[in-house]
Amino acid sequence: MKTLKLILLSLPFIFISCTTDQSIFDIPKTGIEQEGSTYEKDGYCIYDGDILLKKDGSRTYSNILSNPTIWPEGIVYYNFNNCSVSHKENIRRALHQLMAVTSIKFVEEVDMVSGPLITFNFIENGDCNSHLGMHPVHQNINLTSGCFGEDKVLHEVFHALGVHHEHNRSDRDDYIEMFWENIKTNYFFAFTKQNEAVDPAYGSYDYKSIMHYNSHAFTKTGNPVFKKRNGELISTNTQLTKSDINGINYLYRNEVENRSTITIDVESPSEFVFVELAPFIVNFTWGGMGTEGYTSKVIINTTVYNNITNFSFSPSDFGVYTIRFEVYLNGKLISYNHRDVEYIDKS
Known about the structure:
Blueprint: E1 5-6, E2 25-26, E3 39-41, E4 44-47, E5 51-53, E6 75-81, H1 85-101, E7 105-108, E8 118-122, E9 129-131, E10 139-143, H2 150-161, E11 176-178, E12 193-194, E13 226-228, H3 242-251, H4 253-257, E14 263-267, E15 273-274, E16 280-286, E17 294-300, E18 303-306, E19 310-313, E20 319-329, E21 332-343
Parallel strand pairs: 1-14, 5-9, 6-7, 6-8, 8-10, 15-21
Antiparallel strand pairs: 2-12, 3-4, 4-5, 9-10, 11-13, 14-16, 16-19, 17-18, 17-20, 20-21
Helix pairs in contact: 1-2
């Protein structure tokens, strides 16, 4: 198996009745009247606080506890919609953090493509939510203003990878005590248990998992909605834990073994801001050169150069230029490297 090497130098909710498959959940019998288990928004049923289901409530994208629909070869393609430069950078940092410690690989697509793809979508007055597992065509991770911290982005990305909330595990009652009387009644389903047993390979219950709610999530009284069995509160963790990392690697272990990737080395200047219109030289080498099925592109803003490994770019004016190197296998983008180079007039 070849390994990849990248050297980088440079509304208010509208509560309706959504039909949800309840056979996989342990529905609490609290004696408290619920206003609704899910709510509809933008053509979807929202389950568990931040998980997108189809409008009829069916659960087609699965989760880590019940045969998740996972991304082939552990490669996830993504792009952006309505995201600012800072939004994009925060998302990229989160994804690179995950790539540094897991086998998952994220590939940014400049243009919309057919097949599975995540669009990070900024919604001004919306919610933070994601599909559960891979959708066969296209799916959104919706983010509003308070969702661009790396931990919030990673939480939703974990859903898209096929991971459910930690506090919904079937064994959670061994570790936390629920206080249903303190939960907003329309959010009861955010705390229902999975019926499936937990695969021991995913590790023991993790209070600090990035997928665990804090003790005051969706409280209507200001009091905790759950505590540890010893009475301690659970706070929001902003860092990936060992079990978060191990769980993803275990979930995708077979997919990664099937991955076909190549080697890319990129040499480019250490400074990417130039004070004059001087050439920007980049050299690319990659292990697939001359191999059947492999092709490459260099893209400078919108200009495309096919099947070259080095170039010298001379800008025609001051400004920011996006320079991107892409490698394809049988027409499918499998790896890339890109630079934003800014030329500044300081005369």
